[in-house]
Amino acid sequence: MSETLTLGDRLRIARKTRNLSAAQLAQRVAISPSYVQKLESGARKASPSLVLALAKALHFGPEVLTGQPYYGEPESEDGVHAVIPELRRIMLCYDTPDDLEIAPRPLPVLASEVDQVAALRRDARYAPMGPLLPAVITELTHIALSGTNGEREKAFGHLARAYRAVNSLAHKLGHHDLSSTALERVRWAADRSGDPLMQFTAGYLVVGAMLRQGAYAPGRRKLLALRHELERMQPEHSYTNDALAVDGALLLKLAVLEARENNPDGADTYLREAESVARLAGNRDSLAYEMSFGPTNIRIHEVHALIDMGDVEQALARLTEWSDAPGQEWTPPASTVGERSSHHFIDVASAKLAVGDRRGAFADLRRARKVAPNHTRFHPSARETSAALLRLDTHPSAELTAFGRWAGIITT
């Protein structure tokens, strides 16, 4: 039985590839040499912002440190990567789609299938979602390019949503080049959909990619410009509920951005503003434009921001404060979409590991797996937390060992 490379292993290899000492790398990212050594040994876990800073200092992409995409034995469980080559080809041929042997299915039928794809995407069920994408995208493209005037804009709107699913699938599995291409296709289709809010959604997704590459200043400018344009479009500030959901999502993205730059006041300001927007919308969790905006997602983002800034004790304290039951933690309602819930549990597992609560960390990883297995297995933070638990436990339990094998961290 052996374990795959951890982020610390990959960091050490990358540092030596660039002929840098631990002290030289530490100087470049403004941390101590001992911190670099603890990262490499696995004694400390790097936050997403630190991973980006290290990758930038080493002149590598972040995926070199996270090790994405992950293949190995778990791929045989669901073949989730198998659709990627076909999606690459379809993204390349976006305006010259494959010929169809029969006419495309009616637009309402394709729209219903995109709804199904969107639901699978929100619940991070990538294995059943992936095979649906090539056909529905090809058929929608034919209608968008050659259909009647009444159909074209609607087809482009549904096509933007399908491309969004490709972006999510590619990003979560670590195929970042395909994710970037899919984002361009989202923008291309959204611009032709006749739906301004779809265009804002496209901009929101692009900023998400910017943050993943550490482009914080351009991302901030784009988010603020999107909010300014959204405000300009709403007559006398009379936002529709859909527009409120989009505006709230932009605010949460700004909060994440400020957290990545270790600006707690800025992050808190945007979180409180998001709460105000949620109140205007009736304090209901909404799926408008697939933003999953509302009180639940605000709490998830607040915990994420605190953990990202290294304030794990405060993040865990918030969960206790929000709970209605003494001694219990707040968890997202069962109705919360799977991708959001699993992301929350993965974050909390990381926080509990940081404070030495290994049992609690593993319990939250199991919760994440139960909610969204595909998302959990391919999430870099979940894998690093799992690897750390295995490394710290001299005699890991059968359950933890089985989890490591399921995630592909342990190979036999």
* Termini Cα gap: 5 Å
Supply the CATH architecture of the largest domain: Alpha Horseshoe
Shape: globular
Q: Please state how the strands of the largest beta sheet are arranged side by side.
A: 1-2
Structural class by SSE content: mainly alpha
Arithmetic mean pLDDT? 92
Proportion in helices: over 70%
Give the biggest sheet: 2 strands, antiparallel
Please report which band the strand proportion falls in: under 5%, 5-15%, 15-25%, 25-35%, 35-45% or over 45%: under 5%
Number of domains: 4
CATH fold descriptor of the largest domain: Serine Threonine Protein Phosphatase 5, Tetratricopeptide repeat
Total helix count? 23
Query: Radius of gyration in whole Å, from Cα?
Result: 22 Å
Q: What's the quick description here?
A:
By secondary structure, the protein is an all-alpha fold. The chain has helices at 7-17, 22-29, 33-41, 48-58, 62-66, 75-78, 84-92, 107-122, 126-129, 133-146, 149-173, 176-191, 196-212, 216-233, 241-260, 264-280, 295-308, 312-322, 338-354, 358-371, 373-378, 380-392, 398-407, and strands at residues 2-3, 410-411.
